[in-house]
Amino acid sequence: MKAVVITSPGGPEVLQLHQVDDPQIKDDEVLIKVAATAINRADTIQRQGKYPPPKGASEYLGLECSGTVEAVGSRVSRWKIGDQVCALLSGGGYAEKVAVPEAQVLPVPQGISLTDAAAFPEVACTVWSTIFMTSRLSPGETLLVHGGSSGIGTFAIQIAQHIGIRVFITAGSKEKLEACRDLGADVCINYKTEDFVARVKEETDGKGVDVILDCLGASYFQRNLDSLNFDGRLFIIGMMGGTKTEMNLPTLFAKRLTVQAAGLRYRTAENKAAIVNEVEKNVWPAIAAGKVKPIVYKVFPFSEAADAHKLIESSQHIGKILLVPS
């Protein structure tokens, strides 16, 4: 098969399409012929040599995919050859075939194309496992999403709105703010021209929001705490703004705040299976009902993976960037 290979750690130019061996499936895995995969920020960090795949995972990039089941292991019961599916991966999506544990595979949502289905697994599992399963975001509460126009952000806006959450977002351009507003965001804040803490307080009568989903980390840490309501929850899923910071502990005590952080890739197979099960039960019906749509900015062939990485690193996109076999 062909796969996008990291020839050496570095910039986007190190990505090249090579002929490689097909993956071998285990008894509890399915082999998917990949129709599409999606670009995630984590892919760019792995490309730089700073985010190695978990032990036993594919060495190739790609944390999600869609495609057709080509083979099944002896202990696989749900899936059969020919099924159209999408999947949460620990790696391997940037290849024509990928082996995936059965429990991390999902049906293509009703009404969604096979290609567009690749835009859902990583964002759906990330958002649902963090702010809903862990932070217990509930109808009637308020949510602030940083990077509202990202793949994570555009998904979070839609699912939160569907559930009855008042959604605040930050983004850095008029075009991105308008896109978020069109998706259902209630309060759209330009972080380049506005103080998001002040705007959040203004829009909530001085209370703050109940939950924040943050991809910046250190640079926003204290401001995020200042933006939370009593019993507020900050969930950190990225460190684009740095890894080290200082915090004002009295803020936590005074407002009974909770700070949480997690990723998906290094979780156990059992934990991933539980998340995927909850996503299928809670998110897939919303997609089938047309309440949550795939937001796909651009589709590249595998042979142009370097250009796809340049685009995501430029932050000019809105929604997801997909890769398809050349």
TrEMBL record:
In its UniProt entry, the species of origin is given as: Linum trigynum
By what name is this protein known?
Enoyl reductase (ER) domain-containing protein
Q: Which GO terms describe its molecular function?
A: NADPH binding; oxidoreductase activity, acting on NAD(P)H
Q: Which keywords annotate this record?
A: NADP, Oxidoreductase
Family annotation (NCBIfam families): quinone_pig3
Per UniProt, residues of the Enoyl reductase (ER) domain are 10-323
Record keywords: Oxidoreductase included?
A: yes
Q: Which residues form the signal peptide?
A: none
- InterPro entries in alphabetical order: ADH-like_C, ADH-like_N, ER, GroES-like_sf, NAD(P)-bd_dom_sf, Quinone_OxRdtase_PIG3
